[in-house]
Amino acid sequence: MSEAGGFITARLLGGASATPPVDIGRDAAREAARRELSDPAYHQNDPSLLQRALNKFWDWVGSLFDSASGAAPGGPLGLIAIVLAVIALIAALWWRLGTPRRAVTSPGTVFDDRPRSASEHRAAAEAHAEARRWNEAVQERMRALVRSLEERALLDPRPGRTADEAAAEAGVPLPGHADRLRLAARSFDDVTYGGRTADEAAYTRLRDLDQDLARTRPALSEAIHGGAR
Fold this sequence. Notes:
It is built from ten helices and no strands. By secondary structure, the chain is an all-alpha fold. The protein is rod-shaped and about 120 Å long.
């Protein structure tokens, strides 16, 4: 008999006494034992309510992990590999897309309130690029591109023009660059209104497009026919 069992028996029988034991029924004995075990003396070393709750929680976590590792290819190591792959994917997306700031509600205009020449916008773009401020560099290069087209009379100077509108209108006299113009407008909108982060490659594409457009002769006949239709 265990120490606790001996203690309970001694308590029930009134300790070591010469008095002959009393013969009691089974139900009465069960009730006497229940009352005896409710004594706080038997529960001094029981875990607290918080500890019991924590034990149940960690048991649940352990069973969940066991179930997942059993279903994953390769067991626990396979599960760890899957978790690491998911974390790496999230990190890559976060790095590529940048921290979202706000959604695009409507495309804004290309230019701010202060008018500048194409050469001034190009100089500002190069300064930002040297400092590796790619968002600002992309914005200024797109402004230089559009202002240059206005200075060449390929676009009518028009306040409030959006980057998408400029790209669509410039694609008429410059049809060979229409796709690149649309991509440039999208890059401008992404970094200006979409909360995206530009990189060196995005700026290089815009700079090369600006330089190529400066060397391209417009298809004026197509522009005239397109406007006449």
